[in-house]
Design goal:
This protein is of the alpha+beta class and about 200 residues long. The chain is about 20% helix and about 40% strand. Helix 1 crosses helix 2.
């Protein structure tokens, strides 16, 4: 099992316990600056042609026609509902660039700052050699969300990840992009466009 899926399971277990009781004081809020709308949405607008659409779990998003999608049924160990990957690439499956989408039920709606704090702590505690480069608030579909960009080790492979989280109707929606560090920039523009297309139904 990759460290991303292991971390996902750990985050899910921790989230069920911690996110329902975590209280974040305003002095601890990492989102003091005004939030950005989407991920550089003027530079990376959502797709208008040559795209497919995924719609389920009360949200939808667009992705390129030359990417594949695998859909999953969430269970007690993993809340992954879909995995997107570039098509026709000679990648090893375990370290191929991918976008994972998770939907985690919460006991109650939780402030996005509290979710961000717990996600940050889990990354630093459980991902080997973790280093966070960016941690800030954004708006996604007119809702407050957070953006984390960080690196870490999966076995001997150094990976870079982008994580976007948003809470609505007592559910945490996560979009996580993972790639080997030397491949991360290749697909980042496409991933930003995928994220910018996210909409609640």
């Amino acid at each position: 099992m990759s460290s991303l899926k292991t971390l996902s399971i750990v985050l899910g277990i921790l989230g069920a316990i911690a996110l329902s009781i975590l209280i974040v004081k305003s002095s601890q809020n990492p989102f003091q600056n005004p939030s950005e709308v989407g991920l550089d949405i003027n530079t990376y607008p959502a797709f208008t042609q040559n795209f497919s659409e995924y719609s389920n779990y009360e949200f939808k998003l667009k992705y390129p026609n030359n990417w594949t999608i695998e859909e999953y049924q969430p269970n007690e160990f993993s809340q992954i509902v879909a995995e997107l990957m570039p098509r026709d690439r000679n990648f090893k499956a375990s370290i191929a660039p991918k976008v994972l989408i998770e939907v985690r039920p919460l006991k109650k709606n939780v402030a996005i700052a509290a979710v961000n704090q717990e996600a940050t702590k889990a990354i630093l505690d459980f991902l080997p050699n973790a280093k966070i480069f960016e941690n800030r608030k954004i708006n996604l579909d007119n809702q407050p969300a957070y953006l984390l960009i960080y690196t870490g080790l999966d076995g001997k492979n150094k990976l870079q990840r982008m994580q976007v989280g948003i809470v609505k109707n007592e559910h945490l929606y996560l979009i996580i992009y993972e790639a080997k560090i030397e491949q991360y920039k290749i697909f980042e523009p496409t991933v930003r466009r995928i994220i910018n297309s996210f909409e609640f139904l």
